[in-house]
Amino acid sequence: MASLEELRNERLKKLERLRQEGYKPYPSQTEIGLSLKGVVEGFDHLIEIGRDITTGGRAVALRRQGGLIFVDLISSGYRLQTLLKEDDLGGLFELFAETIDLGDFIQVTGKLITTKRGEKTIEAASWKILAKSLRPLPDQWSGLKDTEERLRKRYLDILLNEEVRDLVVKRQRFWQAIRDFLTAKGFLEVETPILEVTAGGADAKPFKTHHNALGLEVSLRISAGELWQKKLLVAGFDKVFEIGRVFRNEGMDAEHLQDYTAMEFYWAYADYEQGMVLVEELYRHIAQEVFGTLCFKIGEFELDFGRPWERYDFRETVQKMTGIDVLQANLPEIEAKLKELRVEYDHAGFNLTRAIDNLWKHCRKQLAGPGFLVGLPIVVAPLAKRHEYHPELSQTFQPIIAGSELGKGYSELNDPLDQATRFDEQMKLRAAGDEEAQIKDDDFIEALEYGMPPACGFGLSERLFAFLMNKTAREAQIFPLMRPKEK
């Protein structure tokens, strides 16, 4: 079997041959009048008209039978057979046979026909090279089986794997479904800064960089503009949302990445109970619009988004599953339980808040959903309003799906004095080594002091898409970040 370098050298010779024959292997312009999609979808009408058409795509199959060459072209997921006849093309037929390889992009002009086998075909009267491929495509059946290689060369994975191509299309539909749903509900889409002096709106470790022009140390945002969107509520907007990239300098696993797309909305004069009604409707809309079903098999769980959602009380659920009362237990007691349950966690900056969170994460893996987690302790929700009748609890809700939290919302804290106190508590945690504790944002507190209406906020990330696709987080991205390949 020829090596990759030998195959590449052979193609370079063909490239030079095309140039010698007066062809430009990489022309700037084409004469394509109809895309393959247009040809395939309008084939019956176009064949009746009987005019020559010009189209093009990538050659993915080549078969020679004497004086005939059959070529399958693909583009945007559409496939069309091309027929070249030696009797019609003369010397151009042999030039094609001697210089065109699988992977090359070509343009063909001719009439549409249907072969004796019923194959929709364009019979070429002429052809033109559009881009010469210097590397052979992997075999569709045996190539790119290694996961790392597939993700590293995602463009080939998409080209060869229809399931991956479908993922790319569904990913766009996922975000469009959210955008359409919220816009129809009267929400205004906005854009807020990605570079921030203070990375706020979430418990996460930010990426940091230096802004040369302003001479500032800045961070890439860790939320989809939470504090900025709340400032827009102060400014008089009632319903806003943003879809954008978020960055967190933390660990990687099947559910978490460092840069990903997220959505957050903020709804003035609403609370977390109204938020749950809207989010339940939103998730059903996504499921139906993107996947055409409300029923999913995700890992070991089977879910039906069409049935009424469960309510999981944080305190009751943890106590039932572990015997620990999170509102009464101290740090050593929870640490002992985590050790007993063999829960691994990061010991750096570990505190009561992180202990409760790790205990909960152990419990949630057993919940199928769909449902909402409610009744979270105020210590794990520094931006949420306190429950009116249970001040130790927050007005927070989190969608629970297939053992994971796939979103988070709450009645937004709009008391500037309470917010300042909670920021101070978060800063004490940071000083003690908790790098994920929130940073005090004095500008945000100042904005709150001008008055922000009662509001509900909610956010979700592309992790929801990954779960509905039953894929890992990396597989659900089009081009996930990869460590450079060692040479």
Automatic annotation (TrEMBL):
CDD domains recorded: LysRS_N (cd04322)
Keywords: Aminoacyl-tRNA synthetase, ATP-binding, Ligase, Magnesium, Metal-binding, Nucleotide-binding
Keyword Cytoplasm recorded: no
Required cofactor names: Mg(2+)
Catalytic activity: tRNA(Lys) + L-lysine + ATP = L-lysyl-tRNA(Lys) + AMP + diphosphate
Secreted listed as a keyword: no
Cofactor binding, note field: Binds 3 Mg(2+) ions per subunit.
One cellular-component annotation, GO: cytosol
GO MF term set: ATP binding; lysine-tRNA ligase activity; metal ion binding; tRNA binding
Broad enzyme group: ligase
Domain Aminoacyl-transfer RNA synthetases class-II family profile: 176-484
InterPro entries tied to this protein: Aa-tRNA-synt_II (IPR004364), aa-tRNA-synth_II (IPR006195), aa-tRNA-synth_II/BPL/LPL (IPR045864), Lys-tRNA-ligase_II (IPR002313), Lys-tRNA-ligase_II_N (IPR044136), Lys-tRNA-synth_II_C (IPR018149), NA-bd_OB-fold (IPR012340), NA-bd_OB_tRNA (IPR004365)
Biological process terms in GO annotation: lysyl-tRNA aminoacylation
EC numbers: 6.1.1.6
Name of the molecule in the record: Lysine--tRNA ligase
Origin organism lineage: Bacteria, Candidatus Vogeliibacteriota
